[in-house]
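Contributing: when you submit paired examples, paste them exactly as shown. First protein:
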Amino acid sequence: MKHANRHEVAEKVFWSIALPGFGQLLNGKLFKGFLFIALEILVNVQANFNQIIILSFNRKIRESIEQTNYQWLMFYPCIYMFAIWDAYKDAGGGKDRYSFLPFVFGAYFVTLGLIYSPCLKVFGVLLGPMWLPMLSLPIGLALGVMIKKIVERFINST
């Protein structure tokens, strides 16, 4: 495998953000790419995710909560974040041992946001199954980066 530059890595990560599986296809991992695309479509359809997005953008939060199939949507954060990390890793990024931690914590916090989305209000506003998980992502990523740095510092000091 040739050494990828940061722009190639970023391109594959951004395509994976656009649709899980695209980064894998660009990395030449066809089976994984089509598997992630199929999983994304399956979970998206079963969870009514496109309808949730439309309703959320139109500020119909209660309706979006009612349309959500939480049993299916709970799979989405882990599939999504794993696909992004996998594309990143296969593109040549994340060579350090703990590069997965921000992605893991990102998925975890998005999942927590999803769990609490039907009832948690932020500044008195119910955000629902799209906005609360999205706003939870930066918190998870930041915590993952901090924990990664702490673990690396601890490992390097021993």
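Second protein:
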Amino acid sequence: MGQKLSIDNLIKKCQRFISFPGESGQEKEAAAYLKEVMKELGFDRVWIDDWGNTIGVIEGQGTEKILLQGHMDTVGVENQELWSVNPYGGVIKDGKLYGRGTSDMRTAIMTMAFAAASFIPCKEDLQGDIIVAGTVHEEIFEGVAQGKVVDQVDPDLVIIGEATNLNLAIGQRGRAEIQVTTYGKSAHSANPQEGVNAVKQMMKFLAEVEQLELPVDDFLGEAILELTDIHSRPYPGRSVVPEECLATFDRRLLVGESEESVLAPLEEISDNLSKRDKTFKAEVKLVEAEVDCYTGNTLASKRFFPAWKYSQEDSFVKEAYQALQDSGLKSQISHYSFCTDGSQSAGIRQIPTIGFGPSVEKLAHVVDEYVELTELEGAYRGYVAILKKFLAEDSNYEDLD
């Protein structure tokens, strides 16, 4: 064992971890630091892959593999003057650690690493491997980088550390980004009758969208279709009737929805408008994008990240829930309202996946983001309890001092 497993050391490591700004594609320093800490803690293998994900393994004696995973990238700080503290200063006051990435979600990753390391003294009792991973680019591509990790370690169970207020999350709505483009005909705005205004065509489309009825799930809630941006071309349109108008929609998905089923109602609106108005032309599609990783490699994907949910009666859910209760936590069964990396492990690959982490969802991405220090202790206790339940029922792990 390398570093001492104490709450003070965990907090210090969290303070240092959040000191590195790390918007998507800029996680290099955070990744290097996480690798350094896992080596110091005594992980058997630690590496950074070609996308920049940091992965550490504690090797047990059995064949089971549990992956504890969170993302290292954070949203940016648009206006630091709005913060009451330095967002990268690791300030502690009133029992809270403040800073960008405290709640979403570097402190969870560090707590996972410490919890995993507590089993190093009893590795011979582990019925499999414990893997901890910090991934890149989650803020814009939920689950894509996690898929890269899954390809390398092939886990039997995934624990996501996104904030749950120490409850057990067993599902989430997914997310799709849809772009609709309406096409017109440019003309001088002094003679608009000679053209077709693409913005006005979009207004017709949006009026129809408002009438759509979306599905509802009795656990995850309502599907959502929300307009998030709109712009015309050319822009600025100086005395020109716009020939194109692009609108982007955020679509929150429910279990069972596919790319085709999500696009179909919008395509039907477009088709119906075209039948009624021969000048109406539109295109509906999922957004596809590619971004550069800090390693220089490229990550590309459609922006379609499926929903997922499990039953309280699923055996791994029941075992995890019981482990949390036995640890003294008063955890409840819950679900995420936002999209997480579970879209990959559970939504696409059907790998048993649960969410458990410190802090609450509403603190993600906000000014004066923070995590309660007591929640870090609770998260540590919860991760240890779940790992012990699945891999080391009779082991004597090392607890935090």
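If you have annotations for the second protein, write them as plain sentences, like these:
The CA atoms of residues 130 and 157 lie 10 Å apart.
The radius of gyration is 24 Å.
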